[in-house]
């Protein structure tokens, strides 16, 4: 099927750039994506419409990591998001396989990496839109440092994360360590990833990725 003939169900989502970015990170870090040795600090790069942490934002201390448990639902109260989470692996190109195009309200978890709430960096990916409507992470770049993200787990616990960084990384500025590596060793961290930048109609893909970084600060039931 040619590009103009694709149905709205498949949408214009992630046709190359976004998941190629994920491929780059996984190619560099492989299954050790949660084990980068050095934390990341200092200036961040990206789109200033949604980037970094204002210097006056006070963030809570990190909580000790939880054990491993499957994620079931992602809640982002500030964006009105409540979405089921499904385990995903790698596609035929070696990139993280996103949720099916006909399920734009579902979030994918990279199951070969850390579980949300456990030590390491857990990766959650989702679509930004379809040809006809917004998808689950449409408003992701509107998150700000200090806001809360919750992941409901199969063990009955709710892992509560605090956002500490939001970036929009373009192809020429993408850095796999910055995107996937832990900000601080020993923490339970979370990355939410979707498309960003502008939509290139010629390539039918987005020019960047929105990457939200958060860390475990509490639990609930």
Describe the 3D structure.
With 221 residues, this protein is mainly beta. The protein has a single domain (3-220), classed as Sortase (Sortase, Chain: A). 8% of the residues lie in helices and 33% in strands. The protein is built from two helices and eight strands; from the N terminus they run αββββββαββ. Strand 1 and strand 2 (81-88) form a beta hairpin. It is globular, with a radius of gyration of 16 Å.
Largest sheet: 8 strands, mixed, barrel
Strand order of the largest sheet: 1-2-3-4-7-8-6-5
* Morphology: globular
Number of strands: 8
Round the mean pLDDT to the nearest integer and report it: 76
The name CATH uses for the topology is Sortase, Chain: A
Report Rg. Answer: 16 Å
Number of domains as seen in the coordinates: 1
Low-confidence stretches: 1-21, 23-51
Distance from N terminus to C terminus (CA atoms, Å) equals 47 Å
The CATH class is: Mainly Beta
Question: CATH homologous superfamily?
Answer: Sortase
What is the helical fraction, as a range of percent?
under 10%
- Give the helix/strand class: mainly beta
Hey, roughly how much beta strand do the residues contain? 25-35%
Number of helices: 2
The CATH architecture term is Beta Barrel
């Amino acid at each position: 099927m040619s590009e103009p003939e694709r149905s709205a169900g498949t949408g214009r989502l992630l046709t190359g750039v976004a998941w190629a970015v994920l491929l780059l990170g996984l190619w560099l870090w492989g299954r050790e994506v949660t084990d980068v040795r050095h934390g990341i600090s200092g200036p961040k790069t990206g789109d200033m419409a949604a980037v970094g942490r204002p210097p006056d934002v006070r963030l809570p201390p990190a909580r000790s990591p939880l054990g491993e448990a499957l994620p079931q639902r992602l809640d982002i109260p500030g964006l009105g998001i409540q979405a089921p989470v499904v385990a995903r692996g790698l596609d035929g190109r070696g990139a993280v396989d996103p949720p099916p195009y006909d399920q734009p309200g579902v979030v994918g978890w990279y199951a070969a990496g850390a579980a949300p709430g456990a030590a390491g960096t857990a990766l959650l990916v989702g679509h930004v839109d379809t040809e006809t409507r917004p998808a689950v992470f449409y408003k992701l770049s509107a998150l700000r440092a200090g806001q809360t993200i919750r992941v409901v787990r199969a063990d009955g616990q709710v892992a509560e994360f605090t956002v500490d960084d939001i970036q929009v990384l373009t192809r020429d500025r993408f850095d796999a360590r910055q995107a996937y590596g832990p900000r601080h060793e020993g923490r339970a961290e979370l990355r939410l990833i979707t498309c960003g930048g502008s939509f290139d109609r010629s390539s039918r893909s987005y020019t960047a990725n929105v990457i939200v970084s958060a860390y475990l600060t509490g639990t609930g039931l």
